[in-house]
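MODEL INPUT / OUTPUT PAIR
PAIR INDEX: 1
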Amino acid sequence: MKIFSVSLVLLASILPIIATACSENDEKCKSDVYGASINATEPLMVSQVNGKTGQADKPCGRPSVPSSGIHCANPSLRASEPGTVWLETHMPNRFGFSRDSDDVNFVDFTLSVQHPMFYDVLQRKGASWLPYLAFTGRFGQYIETRPSSPLIAKQFNPKLFLRKFVCGGQQCTVEDKDNTTIDYIDFEYAHLSNGQSVDSIDAFNINAINSGNAEFAKDYISRGWDYFGVSGKYHPNKADKKLSIDYGFKHYVGGLFQKNIDEYFSWEAPRDIARLNQVSGLALSASYNCNNCGFWNGVTIGLETGTNQPFKYNTVRAELGAAPGNKIFGIPIVLTVRSGYNSDLAQYYKKTTSIGVALNFTTFR
């Protein structure tokens, strides 16, 4: 499918930026500006260092890649120059192990990034709208649990969206985009697929022979949609923003990238769920983050259901995050349990129970 190649081009363009965005200049910046080695997780402001009063606190700038305008992730070390933008995390970037009730163990990893567009122009105009390009990819590596230990693409999700920043009764602009407690609404157009190409019974039979298992061969059946969406984040308590609500709506269509929807082929066995919108399209979750709550510092509870016959086929999800003092190699961990549908796009119609543990990377922003 066309979007598969588009996704690979986007990913290929992102990876070199990731590799060069943070350089050896980072330590030099911290040493030159602060006069000593500091913990990058502790925000230090210019006025805290120079001791001057009456000066607005602002982060220390350290342009690691001046030609690109991309800066490293720590907000306390970013430049506050007009027009400065950087690669950001879109959905959580994770690397871990998962097990679905209808599958074997696999290494589960997700890469998800976004980048703002036209930031300098919109910043000068004081706009509260900002367009973004985003990409999310999910892959499974079956090490010694399937013949030949295959790497299987599970999701490709390039997206264009327009974000509206909402600051209650206060004036809000694109400069507030790095405030993690801000509310926002996204208006999206995106493609969703599993990057596979099996769309005929002959191709399926060949994969079944090669994999030695007809169930494993189902992972290679092509699935693909475009969709229009609206999603966002809302903090009910403006004084204490530990609680946040995420919501989303998706309307699946054949469109610009996926002209014909791939969700059911005539040679597949008959089933009750033959359209993705029976199990997906409406999502709601609540997250509570706490830095002083003992071993665990965050929990998320979520529900997803279809826009076609809502609440007939439901998926529930729970995530538990480890506190900063309880990390592996300095990286937070998260435990995930989910029960329902769409654990992977190839067999979105199957009801499964999934468990997983993963490292949660905050590589950007």
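PAIR INDEX: 2
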Amino acid sequence: MSKTLRYLAIPAFFSAPSYVTASSQTDFELADVKTLFAETESLGANIVREFVNTFLDCREENWDGCGALPVSEASYFRAKGFLEKCIEKYPAPMFGVTPGGSLTFDWFVNPSRRLIVSIDEDAQVAYSSMFGSSSVHHGAVTYLDEVPSIIWAHLGALYPR
């Protein structure tokens, strides 16, 4: 007896089917990203794509199978603004998500030189940095529209010019 496997053909992320409508700010934002990618495939576009994919992978509750909170649209937009400002001056970080629903940025130079920043929907930026084995810093600040000066200082120390 043979079995016929049926599957739903899911289009690539940026090929939205015609029956999908943009019903939220996120959908409009993702449509803008689709347009951007259609026009250019630059390094910046790859960074944005990776960031967007990180958000999309984790916007449902229990995305990790262990009860993690979803990343909210507010967290996404706040973190996106932060990222856009940072990549104008410094190398792109790696992206991640905490089980609490915060988006994270990890600038890793080597095991003793790195900066990790997490941003939540309430504009809290938690950071931890290491500049050698005896120079460890951490704290939390508020992020509204400007990257906090302490983050700029840590990025500058991580990537001296």
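PAIR 2 NOTE: The longest strand covers residues 103-110.
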